[in-house]
Amino acid sequence: MTWIGFWFPIPGVTLDATEQTNAFFDRGFDVVVSGIDTVEMVTAAQQRAEAGETVFSMPYNSPTGCGVGLDSCLGVPYYNWGVEYLEIAQSVIDGTWEQDWQWVAPDWADINSPTTSITGFEVGPGFPEDQLDNLNAFIAEVTAYATDPANAGTMFLWQGPLNLQDGTVLAEEGAAVAESDIWYLSQLLEGMVGASE
User: Fold this and answer.
1) Distance between CA 187 and CA 168 in Å, rounded?
2) Where are the beta strands (DSSP E) in the chain?
């Protein structure tokens, strides 16, 4: 994993997203999953797919993120801020708004609901049809974890052993990581390339 320096490319400040995507493919990786809010990796993957390579991408943060990667985009996790913005706007209108910090979970009954879920996953045109059952099983596993009261305050897949970049233990083998520790990591995780500041 490489940290480019921000959640979108800033010329002269962050690493170049297209160069980093191509560097992954040049090193033999066949899928690039991105956490930035732009589609450079989708464009790079599509160009390489059109040239005959078997490569794929997974952009971030927009249900239309696969639009430039019709052969190579596996899908896109995205936010649907409108659900919460509407609630906040209504509380302002009602005079009940108060400043606070919330962790708003998806609507686990329908993560792609445009009216009730703050996040979702749009399956891309490059996603192999014969793998849809595996994807749906994974989503069911995430949902079961997230809706189990025993897992309150933790996130699926964030279980030890996990260390920070400097080797500091974040979670021992099998231990869950608290949501607050995830949101406020003091460093990137061990194995991630890039500055933690």
Assistant:
1) 10
2) 31-33, 56-58, 75-79, 119-123, 154-159, 162-163, 169-171, 176-178
CB 71 within 8 A of CB 51: no
Contact 188, 3 (CB under 8 A): yes
What is the distance between the alpha carbons of residues 93 and 100, in angstroms, rounded to a whole number?
Answer: 17
Residue 8 DSSP one-character state: S
The encoded tokens of residue 131 equal 């793998």
Beta bridge partners of 130: none
- CA 123 to centroid of chain Cα atoms: 14
Q: Is the dihedral of CA 176, 179, 183, 186 positive or negative?
A: negative
| Contact of 166 with 187, CB cutoff 8 Å | yes
Consecutive H or E run containing 85: helix 82-94
Q: How far apart are CA 17 and CA 9, in angstroms?
A: 7
Please tell me the distance from the alpha carbon of residue 43 to that of residue 71, in angstroms, as a whole number: 11
The string of pLDDT tens digits covering residues 91-134 is 999 999 999 988 888 999 999 999 999 999 999 999 999 999 99
Q: Can you tell me the distance from the alpha carbon of 104 to that of 118, in angstroms, rounded to the nearest whole number?
A: 7
Q: Give the integer Cα–Cα distance in Å for 116 and 108.
A: 10
To the question of pTM greater than 0.70 for the whole model, the response is yes
Write the pLDDT tens digit of every residue in 58-101.
998 888 889 888 889 999 999 999 999 999 999 999 999 999 98
* Residues 111, 139: Cα–Cα separation, whole Å: 9
